Amino acid sequence: MAVEIRRGSDRFAEREVGRRTLHAFSFGARYDADHVRFGPMVCHDEHLLGRGRGFEPHEHAGLVIVSHVLSGALEHTGPDGSGGSVVLEAGQTGLFRTGSSVTHAEVAAAPQTRFVQVWLAPDDPAALPGEPSYDVVATPVEPLPGARFEVVTLDDGDTFRTPVAPRVHVFVGRGALLRSSLAEPLHDGDAFLFTDEPAHDLVAGVPTTLLVWTFI
């Protein structure tokens, strides 16, 4: 059993004009031996984009990518790079299956857009669908067998009881969790990583949005 508190301030920051990205796991040339993956989660990024900024057409393969927009709007073009586009508004979740190879682009469609993106790479490639697709989905949703994603909204003083599973990842998208036996208060960008833990009660100190992953 283990509880890790991953503070937002400990993430690797990548910046360019109109974009700031915070990487919670190893990414690109930045290797973090202590944070390579969490179950099938190999990437947990938080992006802040100015209008029209983001990621021009690029390729992916062998992934399921889940994006949740916390504020602003995100335009996704593809999945083949030549089709139409989908705009994710604040509070919406996009589920992108890359198949064996796909080209797409993502840019902000609002003056300022903040979103969280997770890449899932299962050990068994057979768990991945063969054809690329992109859908706007309601949560809870199961992007892969054994992987569940849920957006939890809490008012001041509300309690969220964590699922019981081999791995649970709870990210504070906005708001704050009160001090508990586990940690000092958690704020925007902080996360709990639970491994083989029993249920824990997390209490919101202000209106709070949690992004919760359960891996069995």
Task: Explain what you see.
By secondary structure, the chain is mainly beta. The protein has a 7-stranded antiparallel sheet, with no helix packed on it. A 6-stranded antiparallel sheet has the order 1-19-16-21-14-13, with no helix packed on it. The protein has a 4-stranded antiparallel sheet with strand order 5-10-7-8, with no helix packed on it. The relative contact order is 0.21. It has 2 domains: 12-138, Jelly Rolls (Sandwich); 149-215, Jelly Rolls. It has strands spanning 2-6, 12-16, 19-23, 41-50, 54-60, 64-71, 73-77, 85-89, 93-97, 102-108, 112-120, 133-137, 141-144, 147-154, 159-161, 167-174, 176-177, 186-187, 191-195, 201-203, 208-215. Helices cover 0% and strands 55% of the residues.
CATH H-level homologous superfamily name of the largest domain: Jelly Rolls
| Percent helix | under 10%
Q: Output the helix-strand order.
A: EEEEEEEEEEEEEEEEEEEEE
Mean pLDDT, to the nearest integer, reads 93
* Quaternary class: single chain
Query: What proportion strand?
Result: over 45%
- Unreliable residue runs: none
Distance between the termini: 15 Å
Order of adjacent strands in the largest pleated sheet: 2-3-4-11-6-9-12
**CATH topology descriptor of the largest domain:** Jelly Rolls
* Largest beta-sheet characterization: 7 strands, antiparallel
Q: How many helix segments?
A: 0
